[in-house]
Amino acid sequence: MRSDRIQIIIQQTKEKVSTKALKDHEAVVGIMAMAKNFMLNEESVRHIIHEVFDGDKERMAKALTVASHLIDESLIQKIISDVK
Predict the structure, then answer these.
(1) CA–CA distance, 1 with 16 (Å, rounded to integer)
(2) If we measure between CA atoms, which residue out of 66, 63, 75, 80 comes closest to residue 32?
(3) Fewer CB near the last or first residue (10 Å), C or N of the chain?
């Protein structure tokens, strides 16, 4: 996916999380859905999640953990292990 589209995903998701239109775990589920629909690679998904949460590993880990209960995704488990 082109980097300008990734930046749009980051910007829109950050805005929705900051205005409380989305909860953290809902943002992760949305990102994972976009990853499947737009065929994002693992590195792009990691980058998007890192940017959306401004590198806050604790928030990322919590959101990824809750999201992993909602969707069965091996990529989430990989990212969780990286942020813990």
Answers:
(1) 22
(2) 75
(3) C
